[in-house]
Write a structure and sequence with these properties.
By secondary structure, the chain is an all-beta fold. It is built from no helices and seven strands. A hairpin with a 2-residue loop joins strand 3 and strand 4. The protein starts with a strand and ends with a strand.
């Protein structure tokens, strides 16, 4: 994932086995939130978390997309570190 900040707005790209997707979001203080529409599937991934210096971490949750794994849409952890 690559994220750029412009004031309180976040934008960037998210890469997975399905390909590359645009992400949009916002930052307020040390709280971040963003979402990604997965290409070719009716699913959005919502990410929320906090920043701490060059690190970000939080949880993400798939929304929509129906079945798959019994329809379960549990939260999962994520983390990232700023690359030079």
């Amino acid at each position: 994932m690559q994220v750029q900040q412009d004031g309180s707005k976040l934008s960037g790209t998210f890469q997975d086995e399905s390909g590359s997707s645009q992400l949009t979001g916002s930052i307020a203080g040390n709280k971040v939130s963003f979402s990604v529409q997965i290409p070719g599937r009716p699913m959005t991934v919502a990410l929320a978390g906090t920043t701490d210096g060059d690190k970000m971490s939080g949880t993400f949750q798939p929304r929509g997309g129906g079945g798959g794994r019994g329809g379960a849409q549990a939260s999962h952890s994520w983390s990232g570190i700023r690359q030079p």
